[in-house]
Amino acid sequence: MKEEKDYIRDLAEIRSMMERTSKFLSLSGWAGIMAGCYALIGAYIAHQFHDFNPGQLDYDATVSGKGYASISGVLVLAVSILILAIGTAIFLSYKKANKRGEKAWNATSKRLLASMSVPLVSGGVLILVLIANGLIGLIAPLTLLFYGLALYNASRFTYAEVRTLGLIEIGLGLISAYFIGYGLLFWALGFGLLHIIYGIYLHYKYER
Length: 208
Prior knowledge:
Keywords: Membrane, Transmembrane, Transmembrane helix. This protein is mostly helical. The protein has one domain. The chain has eight helices and no strands. It is globular and about 50 Å long. The two termini are about 30 Å apart. About 10% of the residues have low confidence.
């Protein structure tokens, strides 16, 4: 009986070791929570201070002075949020990896980054093309859609919950493409509220 328990324990340890080497498990739940907070604050600023309403912006508005200033301000805001979110995620991932006695930058994290980069880069280029052509209403749906695709790809190399989050982001992007006038609201839901919920779930399941 004792030998059988030892055998089961050894198998569990082997399985855990294989999982650590094949999956990036240094993602921090707090990183998701902070990213969600950044996104909600950014959506509020875009709506209140830049008067950003993608459903009412067309090509004529973007080439006018007020419309161009609004889009430029929102782009700067979006880039700032992205830098904050990525910086926070990197810092907390390194901190968590060091606590676990692991390296955050390894072969698995490189594969994770590569799997996310193709949808994110292609989506980013497409969004810049849309902005240049005044198709502002499609920005929020496509950011959600391509981000969801990136998460779905990356889920092979990290927590399984990332795949679910990716599918939800894709769904929100498709719905947002139909309800163009509510793009900023869907963006806040996808990048804000969902990230906070995901981060809390991840923290309580894997980090406590």
